[in-house]
Design a protein that fits this description.
197 residues, mainly alpha, two-stranded parallel sheet
């Protein structure tokens, strides 16, 4: 890859990220990183794209901050962002510990159950439908991860709760209109003939 091609690919990656096409951004940053393994900009772009794809909050803000840093001092921007990303790894774990106690309090207060605990009950009963029917009106299922939300919606569809899944999905699409997983699930739901008009 030539130096000119490197800059074109980085520009394309940044444009994709700005348009919330994180998969394309990741692919372009990774492509540059293959040819230029010491490129801190490509490395940081890969990390930020992965964060955004996994639904971690703040990836977009960090990306914007990174762009501002590069305008002010392009030489130190890569190092500063690399340090921030490395520090965040441990910080996110610590923040999770700090917030877990209030979450447990909220669960108790709202007569709720974490999705992970709900899944454990489903596995012990060997029936999503039976478990869900038993708790649907008395207990609130609290979902804290995007992957759990997708899994929950998949289970609703699979066990003939398509209208309920569609209702949850419509709400999520307002917040995340370009999310590929949600769009795929919406397509699956719309193809499903079980939804009543």
């Amino acid at each position: 890859m030539s130096t000119m091609s490197k800059y074109k690919t980085l520009t394309k990656a940044k444009d994709s990220f700005t348009k919330a096409d994180y998969k394309a951004a990741l692919e372009n940053f990774a492509y540059v990183l293959q040819s230029y393994p010491n490129s801190k900009e490509a490395y940081n772009g890969v990390i930020l794209s992965e964060m955004a794809m996994s639904g971690e909050g703040g990836a977009e803000a960090l990306f914007d901050y990174y762009e501002i840093l590069k305008e002010e001092d392009s030489e130190s921007a890569d190092t500063i962002m690399g340090d921030i990303l490395n520090d965040m790894d441990g910080t996110l774990d610590k923040l999770g510990e700090i917030f877990s106690e209030p979450l447990r309090d909220r669960i108790e207060q709202e007569n709720g159950i974490l999705y992970k605990d709900f899944k454990d009950i489903v596995e012990s009963n060997d029936s999503f439908k039976e478990t869900f029917d038993n708790i649907m009106f008395s207990t609130r299922v609290i979902i804290t991860k995007k992957e759990d939300f997708i899994d929950f919606l998949d289970n609703l569809v699979e066990h003939d709760y398509s209208n309920m899944a569609l209702s949850y999905l419509e709400s999520a699409m307002v917040t995340y209109p370009n999310d590929e997983l949600l769009l795929n699930l919406l397509t699956k739901l719309l193809k499903d003939e079980k939804i009543e008009n």
